[in-house]
Write a structure and sequence with these properties.
Elements: H1 2-11, H2 23-48, H3 56-80, H4 87-105, H5 107-110, H6 116-121, H7 127-151, H8 156-160, E1 170-171, E2 174-175, H9 184-229, H10 239-247, E3 255-263, H11 266-273, H12 275-294, E4 301-304, E5 309-315, H13 319-339, E6 346-354, H14 358-377
Antiparallel strand pairs: 1-2, 3-5, 3-6, 4-5
Length: 378
């Protein structure tokens, strides 16, 4: 139950921002599939009220099967998780099967929906996924055409029920059904499966081209936005980015740990060796912090908070996590300090708590850092 609650909290998040690849895309596709099913439910209700004229027996079978499929999809997504690489294939497969069911029972109403998996695959950047969606769509076209012809409300029934011209099927204004196509399998393929597959392939090419162009534009915008959020000297996020991140809504009760660094003896280095050496000192300390942040599974973020001050935010972090990061940072610093011709060190402090109190936690970590600096001086 808790897993289901967590899944839907991510799905319904107004501003889903996740570092792991394809998570936001999976959330977007999940929402599309839920909307699709809601629309399918609405049409089903209208058909039950005789607003539409589709055979109820056919519609009910298709709708129940789609409901079962949706439940299986949700269960599998709970087991797999939105973060796993296979989740996107699961989403495309769900879209494909949903289209297959609706097109098999309501063929001439739903023919345009065959392209849905290809459209959804365009959300992702994976070429393999797009090809998978194309193959699934062609399979859908073939299966839904044949199943729809024999068991559903199929447009092919209108043509394949007879094998002669209209003039031989009417007399005195009365429509006569006196002959059935003896070889529907071949005719279905040549006049329905094959041309529709060609259309799907062409749509795939156009869709890929448009998505590629849009993706390049988005990547360029993202790069500009990222560059605006980065500090050029250190390669860390800047203070504006930190303030922006702190303003975004977080889970207030979620745990968080903050580590605060301040470079030691920067003024001495600037006065003795020059400001260029001082800048190198800042960049060197920032580099060690980046190394620590790069080797973790916490999705930490590091910021240049001031001229020579740095902050690391650890989601779900505890005191043990903060101490572990600091210990790893000290080990990285040891060989650097031995080989350096100028004094290179930083005072460090940390604090833990809830995201609701993040500003107080930063202040507490700052105070502990100054306490550490005072002890170093003494």
């Amino acid at each position: 139950m808790q897993t289901l609650k967590l899944l839907f909290s991510k799905i319904t998040d107004d501003n889903p921002i996740y570092e792991k690849k394809d998570v936001v895309e999976n959330i977007f596709v999940f929402r599309i599939l839920l909307i699709w099913h809601l629309l399918y439910t609405f049409v089903f209700i209208l058909n039950c009220l005789n607003i539409f004229i589709v055979d109820n027996n056919i519609f009910v079978k298709g709708y129940i099967l789609s409901c079962i499929l949706l439940l299986v999809f949700i269960v599998l997504l709970m087991i797999v998780g939105l973060e796993q690489a296979c989740a996107k294939y699961l989403c495309i497969s769900e879209a494909g099967f949903l289209v297959m069911i609706t097109c098999s029972s309501l063929t001439y109403h739903m023919i345009i929906a065959v392209m849905l998996p290809i459209v959804i695959a365009g959300v992702y950047s994976s070429k393999h996924l797009s090809r998978f969606a194309l193959a699934f769509s062609i399979f859908n076209i073939a299966l839904s055409t044949y199943v729809g012809y024999y068991f559903g409300v199929c447009d092919a029934n209108m043509v394949l029920l007879t094998a002669t011209s209209l003039e031989h099927l009417q007399k005195d204004g009365v429509f006569l059904l006196n002959e059935v196509n003896k070889n529907p399998g071949f005719t279905l393929f040549m006049y329905y499966v094959f041309p529709r597959s060609l259309i799907a392939t062409g749509f795939y090419s156009v869709s890929n081209g448009v998505n590629k162009m849009l993706r390049r534009t988005m990547e360029k915008a993202h790069r500009i936005k990222r560059e605006a959020a980065m500090d050029d000297m250190t390669g860390l996020y800047n203070k504006n980015k930190l303030l922006d991140d702190l303003e975004k809504p977080k889970e207030p009760d979620r745990k968080v740990a903050v580590i605060y660094w301040d470079v030691n003896e920067l003024k001495f280095v600037n006065d003795t060796y020059g400001h260029e050496k001082g800048d190198r000192l800042i960049a060197r300390i920032a580099g060690t912090i980046r190394l620590v942040a790069a080797n973790d599974n916490y999705n930490v973020r590091t910021y240049r908070y001031g001229g020579d001050e740095f902050i690391m935010i650890i989601p779900d972090g505890t005191e043990d996590d903060a101490l572990s990061f600091i210990e790893r940072w000290n080990k990285i610093m040891e060989p650097i300090q031995k080989d350096s011709k100028i004094p290179i060190s930083a005072s460090v402090g940390y604090a833990c708590g809830r995201y609701a109190d993040i500003n107080k936690i930063i202040c507490e970590a700052d105070e502990k850092m100054y306490e550490n600096k005072r002890v170093r001086r003494e």
